[in-house]
Fold this protein.
Amino acid sequence: MVRAVHLDDSQQITEVAKKKDGSGFKAAKTGFEGKEEQIGKAVQLALKTMANSAGYQHEMNDALVKARLQAMQFAKDQGLMEEYVAHDIKTMEPINSRVKMIIERTGDTESALVGLCERTACHYHLVLETESEPGKRRWKSPWGHVLDACKRLKMFDLTEQEIHEQWFTPRIHGYAKDMGVKVNVSDWNDDGIVEISLAE
């Protein structure tokens, strides 16, 4: 993504005046022109979510977290967690094989981490903040906030450690395999920090 350069008016005029390519001084653009209605709806949903404190303060990822937890709880209750993970990996194989093609064409294994964390709404809608550095991605487990609130209502008996070890880790290894790379996944820690990194 191109980083916006902020110049005051005098700097902007000077920069435009230096150009010899015929480009002129143009109006500021957001890139979302014509999508004002969609943006309005997105902002409205964000505000509704932030205002929802019934039972507990809801976060932007609340609905996705609950949907995933419901599916994981069902798999746990039925003794089907391995099958659920295998189904998830199989479902995502067409996407992950595209990332594999990019890696094969470019030789850039970093693309695997981009594919797992940065180019997929499945990750960034679930995990609201991800730290990125070459060969590594790190974030706080997204499950604890909702689990803590919903366990009081006896909706779930999953633990974050179970999720990390039985659902998250095997999925990530499966995705990486389909991408043609190997990754390391951090062991569960009580601070909830999860890290994945490219294996040497």
